Structure formats: C-alpha cells, structure tokens
Fold Cohesin domain-containing protein.
Amino acid sequence: GATSDVGYTLSGSVSDNRGVSAASWTLGGVDQGALTLDSAGGFSVTGLKLGYGSNVIVVKATDEGGNEGSGTVTVNWVPKRTLRIGTVIERQEGQKMEVPIELKSAGDVSSMTFVLKYDPKYLTEPNLVWSSEMLGVLNSVNTSTVGELRCAFSLGGTKVVSSGEKLVSKVEFRVRSIPEELNSEVSLEVLEMADNQGNSLAASRTASVNGQAQLLKRRVIGDNNGNDRLDVGDGTVILKMLTGLEEVRTWDVGSNDLNENTKLDSGDVTRVLKS
C-alpha cells in the first residue's frame, strides 16, 4: 500500500506447530536484527521511518527444527512534499557544475529552511541562485560553514510555490581536482516548511532526496580550469598551490607535473605559458 506519513510501526505475530525459536526482519534486503516475541509470538517495533519510494519489509521466522518461513509487505512512501536534487550534468575537473534544487508539492509551501551538504574535497566556491519564482522575496543563504549551505526563503503575503515540480534554486560549484572519476554525493535536509498563514507543515509528510554529481578527470595535464587547453588560468592555479592559497593534494602533482620532475614547481607554470 501507500502512505504519505514517514513514521510506521512494524507489528504482527508468528506461529508454528513446533514452536518458533527465532524471528528477524529485513528492510530493502538489509538485515534489521532480531524481533522480540511475546508469549503468543507477537512482536511490535515502534518509531520506525520509511525511505523515499518503495519499502520492502520481510519478516522471517525459524522453528525448533530449523525450518524457515517468511512474510513480505511492500509500503510506498509518497510524501505530500519533496525537496530533491534534480539532474546534475557531469563535469570535469576545473569546470563549473550546476546542482538544481526542486520542490514537488500541492502548492501549499510559502516558506522553507533547508540545508545542502557537499564534499569540499571535490566541490568548492558554492554560489546559490534563486529561481525566477523566488525573485523579489525575502531569502538568505549562509555559506560560512565549509561543505554546507544553509538556506531560507519566505514568499510572504498569500503567495506559495506553484504546485507540481518547480525549480527552487541552482547551486553552482567549481569542480576541484580529483584522483579518479567518481560520484560525489550532494544531500538535502529540510529543517522546516510553512504555509502562507505561517503554519508549520508536517515534517512527517515531507521528504528530502539526495543526488549525485559525476566528476570526470581532465583530458589535458595541467588543465585546471577545464577548457581542454593550457592557458594563463591554469598557471594561476598552480601558482596558488605553490604559495599555499590552494590546497595541494597527492594527486595534484601528477595532474600538473608538466616538466616531469615528480613535484610541483614554477617550472610547471613556465611550461603552461609556453604552450
């Protein structure tokens, strides 16, 4: 079945003519541990939360002879409101990457506070731009914590975000150097939402859905700005590494060692400028 509420209780009973020796359960194929049975074989686990989308719950019971039986139920969590990371187009080292933030709702959201988290090892220089629907409203973005953006807005008056799937904002990052091609998680957490009367919307019916940023290796050694050629911008990045303005990671040497002396130095910059 389907529900719009994230919370649930797992309850039921198991029985066998030879007596049940143990019971356990899984969620989405992941073991959740043993179930505590009462004298009648009943069990109840409270305070559980569904994952976004389909949740397959399997209860297994074993009798005294080692025989096993199971029962399965599938519950779909379909929240009233979902804030999610949209489609992120792959980008290579040095390029700019846009991460869209989208809201799916019935048109009942007028204000919101949320947090976006990213891995600063691979993404840097975050810049959030609100969508056209958000322009002219009160908003605030705090980027003072590395690896995190704390964002809030209020449309004010009787305004709400239009129903359906709507773009809230886009966050632009610069892709830092990477040791290998990888996917870097970008996560969302809704701290609160309210309607146009200022009333809080139920957190139990609101979902946050994370996304992935696919990061690609550079095609040209020394290309730090992702334009597939060597230029002054690339040399500037190497100089920042040499003077400590930009962190040097172990893989940065091989990615920029144009004079092939197994270290970063000003000679690499000279090779860039001669290209």
